[in-house]
Hints:
The chain has 335 residues and is mainly α. It contains 15 helices and 5 strands.
Amino acid sequence: MEEKKRIMSGMRPTGRLHLGHYLGVLDNWKNLQDKYDCYFSVADWHALTTGYDKTDVLKENVLNVVIDWLACGIDPEKATIFVQSTIPEIAELNVYLGMVTPQNWVERDPTLKDMAKILKNKQGQNSQIGFGLMGYPVLMSADIMAVNAHYVPVGKDQVAHVELTRDMVRRFNNVYNTDYFVEPQPLLNTCSLICGVDGQKMGKSFNNDIKISDDDTTTQKRIMQCITDRSRVRKDDLGHPDKCEVAFKYWQIFGNENEISNVCSECSAGQRGCADCKRQLAAKINERFKEIRERRVYYENNISEVKDILSAGTEKARNVSKKVLSDVRSIIGMY
Ligand code: TRP
Ligand code: SF4
């Protein structure tokens, strides 16, 4: 049997995940885990690059991310789930990669500029770009190369990092005259991009998100805040689904064809009030997440099972990385 190609991807433990993560990332991962040998990492070292002084909820965040993954159907029987910081080999590879990385390669990283801006707006000691943050793209390459992955599913904003990893692979192979590392290819997450209830990018810090872990009532309340067709004042005003800024967009994601065309025609004919429309939408979304949320509650109540899954994942990922690092040491010529 032909060996499955390896996939590696990661997520920073920023707290409970929202529908954007579900639609944009987890749904993709779920499909990939059937066809590939997948390694999914909670990138807690990456979280430290900007949050090294805010570690009080780090552990909790790591567990919450894993619980969200499991609830959404990432299956530990198919995919290897682990926490980055439990694999010291990644840190070791990070050291070796740092040696062959030209300074301007990390300086030109586009997301670094964004992060610098964010840090600049913060008060206090944490407003400097640290050495660790500078090395962020190298560390991400170490993640990918520690399992010598073929593919890296990422969002658009991370493609540049995978490109850099490809450069890094070529550089390493070239410096040490080897073809050991595979040039990984980005797999762009195919997704319906979901905006927040206010029409901006969905994000925890914008307080416009719907969390996977939210209950039905919370979801319903949030959905009632969705922006609709702003030109509509009364229930029997003719509506314009194409100008309905958020609610109809959500219908297009969560409704079936029939429902979407119903909403569309009733709205256009002034036979559908926005409040009712959103109540139905909330019910629809809650129905979609019913099982996921039940599974989430199960894992929340069985944390030891989650920890066992992580231990098993660490062991598996670590065995792969140990082999890679043993090869790397001998390729470089270390003692
Ligand atoms: N840098 C990614 C992010 O912030 C997370 C990440 C860490 C990652 N290591 C990775 C993604 C390896 C893909 C592959 O979203
Ligand atoms: Fe949007 Fe529904 Fe209101 Fe039409 S009825 S504007 S689709 S919320």
